[in-house]
Each structure stands twice: as structure tokens, then as C-alpha cells.
Specification:
Elements (H helix, E strand, L loop, with lengths): L1 H22 L2 E16 L2 E9 L3 E11 L3 E12 L2 E7 L7 E13 L3 E12 L5 E9 L4 E7 L6 E12 L6 E9 L7 E12 L2 H19 L4
Antiparallel strand pairs: 1-2, 1-6, 3-4, 4-5, 5-12, 6-11, 7-10, 7-12, 8-9, 8-11
Helix pairs in contact: 1-2
């Protein structure tokens, strides 16, 4: 009888923990994406500036001429959506300004008390203030900035983004995640800025403790040959 009770308890604990992991998610209430950029075209500029609630892409190009030095194509390209932003440019010459930007804003509610966000990406530019990626997490319910991070101030040239952040959140609150990639590098050559966020909702500590207890009980039952 005791063995049956123990088996029942163990199975119940395992089911509870697995169920909490299966339903763990975030509910996206709204999202907005914007891309913008311009490229030099002789004495003028070609440009784009798009905003939408679905993923967007923008591209423009222009022909630049600098007699005796350079003749070639300027181009700017941006994408935003699906928790990723990217901005890349190919300036023909440093005297001809080219710029690209992309940003996304997500308003969401978490399903549990623990939130983990993995940020990956890269930046290639000769100046950290002109080519960068950044993000912020804000508690809209309390109007409180939870976190803000950027590649500004980090090493020049190439930088690989690999950030892992964990947050204690309130399932009753609304949160805003903002992602941005900006590329205003005007030196010759292709430069880019990319950032992607992957959100994981971690089961509450109570569920993790239950899981450990359940695993321990199952181990004991197997050890004594009950299972």
C-alpha cells in the first residue's frame, strides 16, 4: 500500500512540473516595427521609413561620384520583426553619408514569475557610437525600467553579442521589450548591426523544488526495487 502511495505521489509531482514547463509562455499584446535609412545619390538622398505591426524591411541605394577618388554604389538595408533587428550599409566613400536603423517594440505579459532572455548578434563598425545594438526591458504597469544594455562603449571593430539575462517578473504586469540596431558608420566597406532575442519563461522555484523531490523519490523507489 505504501509503495503504491509513493508511486502515485511521484507521478503526480512529475506531471505537475512537466505541465508547468509545457504551458510556460509569454502573451504578446502588441508589437510595432520600424525601419529607416538613407543613401547618398549625387547631391540628393534616397531614403525609406516604414512602420508596421508586422515584420518590415527597407532598402535604398544611390550612386556616388568623387572624381579622382571613388565612384560606386551606396546602399542601406534594415529589417525588424520576429524578435530580431538588423541594419547594414555599404557606403561608397566616407564623404557620402549612409545610414540604416531598425527597432522593434513588444508589449507582453509573462505566464510565470521568472523570465530568461538570450540576446545574440554582432556589430561591425569602426566606431561604437555610430554602429551599435541595444535593448531595454520595462515594467509598464509600474513604469519602471528593468534593464538597459548596449554595445556602446564596448570594443571597436567586430563585437559578438552573447548576453543571457534572468529576471523576476510579475504575471499580472505588462512589460515592454525594445530592440534596436543602428548603423551610421560612414567609412568605406560594408558594416552591420544585428540583434536577436529569445525569450524563455522559467518555471517558478516551487515547481523546480517539486521536480527535485519527485526525482529523488523515484530514485529511491527504483533503488529498493519497488519500480
Amino acid at each position: 500500500m505504501k509503495a503504491r502511495v509513493l508511486v502515485y505521489v511521484c507521478c503526480l509531482l512529475v506531471v505537475v512540473v512537466n505541465a508547468s514547463k509545457a504551458v510556460a509562455n509569454i502573451t504578446v499584446l502588441s508589437e510595432t516595427h520600424r525601419v529607416w535609412g538613407w543613401a547618398h545619390d549625387y547631391a540628393e538622398y534616397t531614403s525609406y521609413d516604414h512602420t508596421d505591426t508586422v515584420p518590415v524591411t527597407g532598402y535604398c541605394e544611390g550612386w556616388c561620384e568623387f572624381p579622382g577618388y571613388y565612384t560606386g554604389l551606396n546602399s542601406a538595408c534594415s529589417t525588424a520583426g520576429n524578435f530580431a533587428v538588423e541594419a547594414s550599409i555599404t557606403p561608397g566613400f566616407s564623404l557620402f553619408a549612409t545610414l540604416a536603423g531598425a527597432e522593434s517594440t513588444y508589449v507582453f505579459k509573462p505566464d510565470t514569475d521568472w523570465l530568461s532572455i538570450s540576446f545574440t548578434g554582432e556589430r561591425l563598425g569602426t566606431e561604437d557610437i555610430s554602429t551599435y545594438v541595444t535593448y531595454s526591458l520595462t515594467d509598464l504597469t509600474h513604469n519602471n525600467l528593468v534593464d538597459l544594455r548596449s554595445t556602446v562603449g564596448l570594443p571597436f571593430e567586430y563585437y559578438a553579442v552573447d548576453w543571457q539575462e534572468n529576471y523576476v517578473v510579475d504575471p499580472l504586469h505588462e512589460y515592454q521589450l525594445w530592440l534596436k540596431a543602428f548603423n551610421g558608420n560612414n567609412d568605406s566597406g560594408t558594416t552591420f548591426a544585428r540583434l536577436q532575442a529569445c525569450i524563455y519563461v522559467i518555471p517558478a522555484p516551487e515547481a523546480l523544488v517539486l521536480g527535485l523531490i519527485g526525482a529523488g523519490l523515484l530514485g529511491c523507489l527504483r533503488r529498493f526495487g519497488i519500480l
